[in-house]
Design goal:
alpha+beta, about 100 residues, about 20% strand, PqqD family protein, PqqD_sf
Amino acid sequence: MHRLMEMKFVRRSLMEDFGEKAGYLFSQETGYVYELNETGMFIWNLLKNHTNIDEILNEILRKYNISKKRAKEDLEEFLKKLIEYGLVEVEDDKCSSDRP
């Protein structure tokens, strides 16, 4: 399994404004606003209660009619963006040694 999928994630403390089809995250630290679509909001909310990516992947598969391969690829891409933008922190000792 891909290393990213083995990591655990902790959401950063951000202000949220979610509607039915789109939502916004506001970082008081940086002043940036991030827009999420419906799927992004769904995953963001799952990160509140689940740090295990397999659990999140299973929830995505329950909600959306897509293949596991596609769901996994899309989830990995979304998580990479969250990491890149500093919206989540990785919390996993076995992976921390691989990072610079």
